[in-house]
Amino acid sequence: MSDPLDSPLVPPALRDALRMAPHNAPLLAHVAELVLLSGGFAEAEALFKRALALDAASTTARLGLASAFFQQGKHGAAHVLVEDMVKQPSAPARAWLLLARLSLHAGEGRLAARHFLRARELDPLATDPALEAELAPFLPARPAAPPSPPPTASATEIFSTDFSAGQPEPERLPAGDLPPSSPAASSSAEPEHPELTFTDVGGMERVKDEVRMKILLPLRQPDLFKAYGKKIGGGILMYGPPGCGKTFLARATAGEVKAGFIAVGISDVLDMWIGQSEKNLHSLFEQARAHRPCVLFFDEVDALGANRTDMLKSGGRQIINQFLSELDGVAASNEGVLILAATNAPWHLDPAFRRPGRFDRILFVPPPDAPARAAILRLQLKGKPVAEIDFDALAKKTDGYSGADLKAVVDVAVEEKLRVAMSSGTLQSIGTKDLLEAIKRQKPTVRDWFETARNHALYANQSGLYDDILAYLNIKK
User: Fold this and answer.
1) Which domain range does residue 349 map to?
2) What is the CATH number for 317?
3) How far is residue 12's CA from residue 30's CA, in Å, rounded to a whole number?
4) Which helix or strand (DSSP H or E) is residue 337 part of?
5) How many Å apart are CA 244 and CA 131, to the nearest integer?
6) What is the CATH number for 420?
7) Looking at the whole model, is its pTM more than 0.70?
8) Average pLDDT by stretches of 10, the chain with 477 residues
């Protein structure tokens, strides 16, 4: 690549200034920002790298480089940079906005909403209207006619799982003092009854066995389980890279046992009014208890159960305390309720959730192995026009692919066949060759996750929680 300073996007006066002072890191970062805003993403990347070589701690250069990566579609590299930035207390709101954009691009809408709220909390002026519009389904609703606020606290406090220090901490309403919620209290929490079953889920046998032991077998053999004092239900936390079927399995669990299914996201719980978030959470548990047997599923549970030691004084701490109280069944028994939770970042979850009796089974959900990949491809191609397909050969070529990646492979192959079919006017069958071509175009998306997970497994694994990650990566401690 030629010298990025020669780009016509660099103002001549600034180019001359840098020729005279090539080691001026702030000036380099400033010029790189101008080039980035002008659309010179590759040139900006090179300039930001020069600035970081001179000043590795420059927040402007690091955030600018992450933005340049994002604009060029290098989302993995951008995510690594910005995720490292937001670990610092001084991380700017713009870093959280970029992380929200990256999370949304990865299909993690609720997590993106959490990051967006954090950015708005740090700086209400650092907003992104287009991003906010895309996140609208995941953001807490704003009541049209809010009730009068309590006199002892600000009515404009918006609950998030990470407030800054110095704000008044609301008093937590104990579970026993919460008003009993009726099954009709929240129409959005009415249980679904999924038709999926375990036969629709490729692989994940270990997780299926745990689910069977906690709810399926106790329902089928109640006397045997009663003799051993084992109750129906409990808590299972699934963690692993995105796109590996955690949410899909949760729905299939409800279908397998013909139970109700309630999916809970951050927007179902968080509320801007003091004490309302805890009531919302209590209401969701009451809904599940009123419809036993029921599967209560918390997607991206770390958004509601972040580590309290990172929060100082915040409203989010009270939500976590309420969550733990509900898991313990302080106000009412959870028998007959299977509480499933999924997270891509278990290292952000408060350790109290891992206590026996809460999420007492913590299961790693890795990308599917070869037999599971073949099974997933069979399920994805079911009902589509296919020729003879060598699923074993395809499974060998897709090592490290998540379930979502495999679905994308099938989608790419289907789109190609649709183009041909529309041109020829005849139905085209999908064959092994078509899928192999699609595999070349669709690369696995979980590698960045494993880079982060590997560091936690190697350097923050005193309890052995992440041993399964090391085993998957063939790393010996």
Assistant:
1) 189-364
2) 3.40.50.300
3) 14
4) strand 337-343
5) 26
6) 1.10.8.60
7) no
8) 78 80 85 88 88 85 90 84 82 90 84 88 81 85 52 37 39 40 45 87 82 82 84 87 88 88 86 84 93 90 76 66 89 88 89 86 90 91 90 94 93 91 86 94 90 88 88 86
